Amino acid sequence: MMRARGADSHPESWLRATDGGLYCVPGDFHVDPHRPAERAVITHGHADHARARNGKVLATPGTLAIMRARYGAEAWRESQALDHGETVRIGDVTVSLAPAGHVLGSAQAVLEYKGARVVISGDYKRRRDPTCPPFEPVACDVFVTEATFGLPVFRHPPDGEEVAKLLRSLETFPERTHLLGAYALGKAQRLIRLLREGGYDRPIHLHGAMGALCDLYEAQGVPLGPLRAVGDRDKKELAGEIVLCPPSALSDRWSRGFPDPLTVMASGWMRVRQRARQRNVELPLILSDHADWDELTRTLEDVGAPTVWVTHGREYALVHHARGRGFDAKALSLVGREEEDET
Amino acid sequence: MKPFAGLLERLVFTPSRNGKLRHLQRYFAETPDPDRGWALAALTDGFERKYATPSLVRPLIEARADPVLFRLSHDYVGDLAETVSLMWPGPAEAARENAPLALSDVIETVREARRKEVPALIAGWLDRLDPSARFALLKLLMGGMRVGVSARLAKTALARYGGIDLDRIEEMWFGLSPPYTDLFRWLDGTGPAPAVDDRLMFRPMMLATPLEGEDVARLDAGAHAAEWKWDGIRVQLAAHDGQARLYSRTGDEIGGSFPEIAGAADFDAVVDGELLVVAAGEVRPFNDLQQRLGRKSVTRRMLADYPAHLRAYDLLFEGGEDLRALPLDARRDRLAALIARENKSWLDLSPEVPFASWDDLARLRGDARAAGIEGLMLKRRDSTYQAGRPKGPWFKWKRDPLTADCVLMYAQRGHGKRSSFYSDFTFGVWRGEEVVPVGKAYFGFTDAELRQLDKWVRDHTIDRFGPVRAVSFGLVLEIAFDSIQRSNRHKSGLAMRFPRVARIRWDKPVAEAERIETLEALVERAAPDLVAQ
């Protein structure tokens, strides 16, 4: 693997955290800019990473499809698709996109310049996700990692156990609508796939905000089984069914009229009881598209980069841990990142 | 441990009583003996002591985790047992074992273990469990489950599970001991009913129906006895053979919090009455009684500052004789004789209030507020003691409530059917230029009004804290309440008793809401003891 030699080629000198996000000087582009940039590399389609109205956008075909579905003509002026395994040159910088295992289309941005390599992992997880290819560790000089769940209390349990809790609840309360709050992009489709794998083959009912992205996943080759829009159907008919909605809809006026609704929320934050209780959640499912503490710390070892920059989340704890393990680690404060499901 | 951990998790997040019952029933049905019996003991406070304390658990994690990471984690999570269970080293998934650790293994081992062996035992178990089961283990050994299950609720689940009457469970409860194998065998229909001495059991109480003012004229004044309605809590004292149990209205045993009564009742009787704090001959405000409720250990200071008192109004059993089929007058004669004979400082008779006509009594009720009394009880002199709330023989005739126009400050989302509605309202009154909270109400409005209130809250939100929203001061609620007392629960230093929304004053400007001085004038001093007079 390559190592940075001269001081001028160390990423410290050519990759900067600016007000607009991470900026690559020799390529003159931003990675996941949080306000419109002339040229942007986008790691994945979540709104705090992929914003509308950038000039030229480079991303995977999956991410571009998501941005187009969300923003329509506002998405960009010009786009370029880059599959995993392909490379492209922007200015003096070679760019490729490695799988991140976060959501459909998600990627790590791999930047090479003057023999030094930086991997900006975006958001990622290490466990299996039936809707996207798994995270690939890429050897590098500087690894930029998120730290959403950067405390050792965040240990996500096996997905199958969490889905089994939901199936069990449907057995115990067959007369109640199970209102399942989950991110409309990624979490919702992964949950549907996990439910199907758990043997649930009844139709799953969707809040209006879910339909388009589910269609997109199916078009991208992720089969989701029978889905129905709640629309303006009589909600009384949905006793004992699963209704999938964005987390904000759980407390919204929309949730009225379902028979004795049982609120379910799928999020990594549900690991901490107080967080679940604050949300009035009756059945918390600990399910996240972000790496938990064990995955974060294991990834640092797998990637093996001598230098680690930690972005959004609980940076302090992860930096402390990484230093203890001999990494040259620091927190990189990036503005504009939102916590998962904090709507 | 895993099924028990799953049960605790469901119970803590399930708000409704019915939902909790369903989870308990399912657990009893699916869990073998003796695990389900130990779980029942854990939920009903059936263990004789705590096996672990924070000072035992903390060093275990400090020896295994980076101190900085532990501190950051503990700060974030708050609860020690939860922090330890989550960050305990080892996989987030428990190893698949041939013989998984059973709840009964834990209990049976720890009960036999010497104290200094306990830390190593706990550490060994934590190594074998996943985070959710680690949490259940620590809560089991440290006590303080806080899953919102009263002993009464657990017994109700048992009754439903076995398809038998709750009274039969209550009847035998204190004759049973963990892990309750004989009880479950009976509930499963594979064994006889456990035989136990039932003298200390809880007897379902007879309750009164509310009486509206105009109804009273239709009753026969000569056939009724009147008593003061005391502002304490309804209790039942069951004493037999040197032992005594004090039950709340729901059948929960609270004698541990009131040793001056439960430890001193050396007669053989079941007495129905009001638990009060009476000091120097004065009935103290309800707030004083609250200082004593729910305490596991009672300090000598508590006993001196807030002495508990039983003001008796009925006698259900005496010397093993069931008096419940006798008329009230006969029961009261027996009660008066018992009280006179026993001559206990903490026990007296709730006196009859003599009256010649309903008008007479209405005047007394009108004065009740000044006397610090909740109202009147009217009981037919010939009434037998019947479980539940039969309509007719007993009435409560409460004094008219006080009202105050208050400013809506915060609203919180409800649970279950109300989970999408802001339905719990915190309100306050003016103190100088600020509004200070005085109470919280969640009923008194119709469903249609709730919809309007919810909309108003959403349209006037200025801040959010979890399920709570702060609203701009713009809506006046007319609050009805039974009384108002000093309290450090609210910033105002006042707390209302039984507040409810009487009217929504859409029309009223907030500047015209009540001022704190007005409410302070309504605070009641201790009531002079009417019996002593």
C-alpha Rg of chain A (nearest Å): 21 Å
Which residue ranges of chain B are poorly predicted, with pLDDT under 50 across at least 5 consecutive positions? 528-533
**CATH architecture title of the largest domain in chain A:** 4-Layer Sandwich
The CATH architecture of the largest domain in chain B: 2-Layer Sandwich
CATH topology (fold) name of the largest domain in chain B: D-amino Acid Aminotransferase, Chain A, domain 1
| Helix share, percent of chain B | 25-40%
Task: State which percent range the strand residues of chain A make up.
Answer: 25-35%
Major sheet of chain B:
8 strands, mixed
Give the termini distance of chain A in whole angstroms: 42 Å
CATH fold name of the largest domain in chain A, please? Metallo-beta-lactamase, Chain A
Question: Could you characterize the architecture of this molecule?
Answer:
- Chain B: Residues 301-431 form the ATP-dependent DNA ligase family profile domain.
- Chain B: It catalyses: ATP + (deoxyribonucleotide)n-3'-hydroxyl + 5'-phospho-(deoxyribonucleotide)m = (deoxyribonucleotide)n+m + AMP + diphosphate.
- Chain B: GO terms for molecular function: ATP binding; DNA binding; DNA ligase (ATP) activity; metal ion binding.
- Chain B: Its EC number is 6.5.1.1.
- Chain B: It is an enzyme of class 6 (ligase).
- Chain A: It holds the Pfam family Lactamase_B.
- The complex is a heterodimer of chains A (343) and B (533).
- Chain A has 343 residues and is an alpha/beta fold.
- Chain A folds into two domains: 7-153 and 290-331, Metallo-beta-lactamase, Chain A (4-Layer Sandwich); 159-285, Rossmann fold, CATH 3.40.50.10890.
- Chain A has helices at residues 11-14, 61-71, 159-172, 187-197, 211-219, 273-278, 293-303, 315-324; strands at 15-18, 21-24, 29-31, 39-41, 54-59, 76-81, 87-90, 93-99, 107-113, 116-120, 142-147, 178-181, 204-206, 227-229, 242-245, 262-266, 283-285, 307-313, 328-331.
- Chain A has a seven-stranded mixed beta sheet, covered by helices on one side. A six-stranded mixed beta sheet of chain A has the order 1-2-3-4-5-6. A six-stranded parallel beta sheet of chain A has the order 14-13-15-12-16-17, with helices on one face.
- In chain A, strand 9 and strand 10 (116-120) form a beta hairpin.
- The radius of gyration of chain A is 21 Å and the shape is globular.
- Chain B is of the alpha+beta class and 533 residues long.
- Chain B folds into three domains: 2-142, DNA ligase, ATP-dependent, N-terminal domain (DNA ligase i, domain 1), CATH 1.10.3260.10; 209-398, DNA ligase/mRNA capping enzyme (D-amino Acid Aminotransferase, Chain A, domain 1, 2-Layer Sandwich), CATH 3.30.470.30; 402-520, OB fold (Dihydrolipoamide Acetyltransferase, E2P) (Beta Barrel), CATH 2.40.50.
- Chain B is built from 19 helices and 21 strands.
- In chain B, the strands form four sheets. In chain B, strands 3, 4, 5, 6, 7, 8, 9 and 21 form an eight-stranded mixed beta sheet that branches. In chain B, strands 12, 13, 14, 15, 16, 17 and 20 form a seven-stranded antiparallel beta sheet that branches. A four-stranded mixed beta sheet of chain B has the order 1-11-10-2, with no helix packed on it.
- In chain B, helix 2 crosses helix 10 and helix 6 (80-87) runs antiparallel to helix 9 (131-142).
- Chain B is globular.
- Mean pLDDT of chain B is 89; it is low at 528-533.
- Chains A and B meet through helix 6 and helix 8 of A and helix 1, helix 2, helix 5 and helix 6 of B.
